[in-house]
Structures are given as C-alpha cells and as structure tokens.
Amino acid sequence: MAAASPIPALRPWTGRPIIADRRLRWTLGIAFALYLAAAIGTIEADWVRIWEGLDRGWAFVAAFSNPDFVTRWRDISEGLLESLTMTVVSTAIGIAISIPIALGAARNLAPLPVYYLCRGIITISRSFQEIIVAILFVAMFGFGPFAGVLTLSFATIGFLAKLLAEDIEDIDRSQAEAVRATGGSWMQWLNYGIQPQVMPRLIGLSLYRLDINFRESAVVGIVGAGGIGATLNTAFDRYEFDTAAAILIIIIAIVMIAEYASGIIRARVQ
Amino acid sequence: MPLTGTAEGPVWRRRTSGRQWAIWSAWLAGTALFVACWQVISASTTWFFVTDSPRVIADIGSRMVPPAWGYLGKLWEPMWDTINIATLGTLLAIVMAVPVAFLAARNTTPSALVVRPIALLIIVSSRSINSLIWALLLVSIMGPGVLAGIIAIALRSIGFIAKLLYEAIEEIDRSQVEAVTAAGAGRGQVMAYGIVPQIMPAFAGIAVFRWDINIRESTVLGLVGAGGIGLQLQSSLNILAWPQVTVILLLIVATVLVSEWVSATVRHKII
What we know:
The complex is a heterodimer.
Chain A: H1 22-41, H2 47-65, H3 73-104, H4 112-127, H5 130-141, H6 145-169, H7 173-181, H8 186-220, H9 228-237, H10 241-269
Chain B: E1 3-6, E2 9-12, H1 17-43, H2 47-51, H3 53-64, H4 76-104, H5 115-128, H6 131-142, H7 146-170, H8 174-182, H9 187-218, H10 229-238, H11 242-270
Antiparallel strand pairs in B: 1-2
Helix pairs in contact in B: 4-5, 4-7, 4-9, 4-10, 5-7, 6-7, 7-9, 8-9, 9-11, 10-11
C-alpha cells in the first residue's frame, strides 16, 4: 500500500442549529447573555431573611406528610363548596355566552362587521389576567362569589369562543352544503350541518375549561372574589402550613380526578 | 337509522327514542345542578352591592379617566422586574422540567413502574397550583421580593413544560433512534443525536409559549408581594388612585400584546 494521503481531520457532526443564520445566532446569543447578566444583577435578595425562612419552608414540606384537615374543616369545606359551585355556574354561563360569540367569530359563518366585533370581544377577554378582572369586578360588585363567577365566565368566553370559532372554521363544508341544498332553514343548517361536526370538540373544550375554572376559582379568592383562595390565604398568613397543605392536597386531588374523568368522557365522545 | 312510523309512512329522526331520552335527562340533571349551585352563590352574595353596581361602575369609570400619564415614569422599573420574573422563571423551569419530561416519557423513562409515576405526580402537582398560590407560599417562607416571584413562576411552569415536552418525546420517530443505536451509539449519544434533534422545535415552541403566559402571570404576582408591577397595582388600588390604575392596566395590556406578538413570531419561524 502506498503512503496514503493523510485523512483530513474530521469535524464531528453537530447537527443543524435552530437558527440557520450564523450572524443572527451570535447576535441573539450575545444579546440574551447581556440581558441575563443585567436581569440577574437587579435581583435583590435578602439572604438573612431567606435563611430565617428556611425553617418555615421545611415546616411546610413537613406539613405535607401531616396535613391538618380537621382544625379548620368548617372554613375548608365552605371555601371548597363555594369554589365548586362557582366553577359549575361560571362554566355554564361562559359556555352559553361563548357559543353565539364563536359563531360570530367564525369567518365562514359571519359577515365581516360581526366577525370583527366578536373577535374584538375575544381579544379583550384574553388580554386581561383573571386576577385583574377579579379585582375590578370586586370593586364593582362587592366582595363574594358573585364577582368570582363573573370573572370566570368572562375568562371562559375568550378561551372557549376562540377555540370553538377555529373549529367551526375547519368544518367539512360539504355536509353543511348538503343540508342547505335540501332546503333547510338557517337554524336547521346550524343544527344539522354544523353542530354535529363541532360537538365533540365543544364537549372536550368545555370539560377542559371546567378544570381550568376550578383551578382559577382557588385563586380569585385571594383578591376577595370568593372560593377556597381566601381560606388558603388566611392559612398562609397565620403560618398554618398544615391547614394550607391540606387545602393544596384537596385541590390537587380534585384536579387529578377531573382530569381523569374528562379523559374518559373525551375518549367516549371523540 | 332512527325512523318513526306515521300515518303517511316512516319519517327520519336524528336520534332513537332511547338516545333522545338520555339527552333530555342529561339536560335536566345539568340544569338542576346549575340551579342548585346558583342558589349557593346567591345565598352568599350581598345583592345590594350588585343592584348598586351601575352607579359604582359609572363612578369608577369617571375616576379612571383621564389616565395619570405622569405616573408612567415610575412604572418602568417594576415592569423590568416583571419581565425578569417571567424570563428567569421560565429559564429556571426549563432546567428542572427537561429531566422530569425525560423521566415521564414512556420511551425514555428508566423505570415505568417507579420513576414515571413520581414524575407524573410532580407534573400534576405543579400544574394544579396556580403561580399566585406558589407566590403566597414563597412570600411567607422567604419574604417579599422578586426572587419569590421567579421561583413561583418556575414551580408553576415545570408541570406545563414537562407535560408538553414528554408528549413530544413520546411522539418521536422510532426509526431515527434505532438508526443511531445501530451505529453503536451509547445511551447519551442516542439521546443527543436520536432524540434531542427531533424534539428541539417542539421544545423551543413550548418554552416561548410558556414565557408568553408567564409574562401575563407575573404582572399580578406583586399583589401578594412577589415583586413586579403588581405591587404598584396593589398600592394604587389601596389608595383608590384610579387614574394610576388605568395607566398600569394599559401598560400591562401593551406588554401582553407585545409578548404575544414575540411568541407568535418565534413559533411561526420555528414550525
């Protein structure tokens, strides 16, 4: 064998980077690193306070192995009942309002002015955090679960109407056309041509929203809009971590059950 | 096909009688539940405040305009904090969520019997508890401040990122992994060359999506003392300075719209 020409050193294959342009990649990388340094630099942490708090942190972790359901059971059960009823009422009201708005926000059903109006309502509902809406509603309608119900219904509209409208825009046109061709009225067209096509998605989204509304109902109480959040807030304020742990365990358990149940129902309707 | 016999012959119906009855009874049960729940809500509502609300709304509305634009100057620093809480919280969450996702995915978990359920429990616990509740807890443990907010956002985001990521890992193309394995790669190399490139676009999309959500969530963390613009919102509300509240709300909406635009652009470029 003749003296083989030396094999050029192979660079190991590294794959394709996610940003193809090299200059852009480096600029973005450096900018991000600078931002990160600046951001971390402005964090003010009171290490003494944190060190003192570690005991409480540990007490909280320990409380999970020994949650106290009993001492404040009256408060917990009242808060929980309020949260659950708020969830049901607000989801039902939210769905009832979302459906007409979704019909209006579907480009294949609605004329342009209606479309813009409904899309506008959806955008407004989506751009405000639940808590901020809750604060405003509490200021307007007073403390209590009524403000919470309004908040969650308002938030449901943005979520459900947007996703439902997108589903309506994706329907199979030929089915709707067939109903129209047999001389169906507008209501019959909706009822037989469109509703059966979007029903599984509507049920799935409603169940998902029910789940979200329960989780949110645990929070709006912090600003006075009813539900278990107020009980939880009090428990943290009094450093009663065993009660707080009990409430959190109940919330997690209900969310898990709801997720499991909605999984079964969704598998059946789809 | 469900038909009804009439004098003029069979007529088409949408559902069989049994199914129709089932649907009607479901509606009945649902309505009864709604009414029962409504009564609970109604009992704990002070209706005087509700009937009085048109006056209050008009009052607040008239106080909110004109917005106190001069207040805007004091808001840049809290806004910077808010954006940092969201960004650093998302980064911290990514660091913790990636291992959890690999432990939770059926095809990468070291043990489907022991490790996977634990990872799934971490995911569901993190997802069920809102960042505001995490913030309440952390503020009571480590005192108010931006750091509590960052950790609260991170703890809430772990579940979200890990859930979407492990679903992406479970949906990867097996043949690429097999090809890398067949070339004699070790476990780490299979991960780096067989799995990671496949989930990278999904991962980047999920991270940016969560960052966008976190911007919204971090605007309210200040209400419980965890830093950011929520602190200013809380103090303005406490002194009923409605013109300042208007400015804060407008700034929040503007930030949310910008972050949504950024996240939509990035996801559009990736996918």
